[in-house]
Specification:
Layout lengths: L3 H14 L1 E2 L6 E2 L4 H11 L3 E5 L5 E6 H7 L10 H4 L2 H4 L6 E3 L4 H8 L4 E5 L5 E6 H13 L7
Parallel strand pairs: 2-3, 5-6
Antiparallel strand pairs: 1-7, 3-4, 6-7
């Protein structure tokens, strides 16, 4: 359980620290793997969300999953990049923050994930919370002056 003081600090900062959906690189269902690999390479991220045309979250795609999907028995089959779709290679099982942002759950999930996708109750993509953002918040909290509790 997160201490009350840290919990209140996080609760106040988390929602304003979320990177909004408009600023997050993503690909759409139906895009081919070549397009996804180009987006991943250009933006420099290892994993990005997969959305539909209504901005609903369906999965995550990574360079590793793309590479795995084009590995043949004797060679890398680059020609598959044009024909395989994002939905053929995307990860569909991953933690998501839905509705209310619980600081304790966010911290626990970010131990094993570089970022968490945030969706509303209709599964519409709202943005991401990154491990980097949380560590910056923890750093601020640790270095904040402590008020006398008398």
């Amino acid at each position: 359980m997160i201490s009350n003081r840290l919990g209140y600090f996080f609760k106040d900062k988390l929602e304003e620290s979320m990177i909004s959906a408009e600023k997050v690189a993503h690909v759409q269902l139906g895009n081919n793997l070549e397009h996804a690999l180009l987006v991943l390479t250009k933006c420099g991220y290892s994993v990005i969300p997969v959305l539909d045309f209504e901005f609903k979250l369906h999965g995550l795609i990574s360079a590793a999953r793309i590479t795995d999907s084009i590995l043949g028995l004797e060679r890398i089959e680059y020609e598959k990049l044009e024909t395989l779709k994002v939905e053929d290679a995307m990860q569909t099982e991953f933690p998501v923050i839905k509705g209310d942002i619980n600081p304790e759950r966010v911290v626990r999930l970010l131990v094993d994930n570089p970022f968490l996708c945030v969706v509303n109750m209709e599964n519409e993509f709202q943005g991401i919370i990154t491990r980097r953002i949380i560590l910056k918040q923890v750093n601020r909290f640790i270095h904040a002056p402590v008020e006398d509790e008398k």
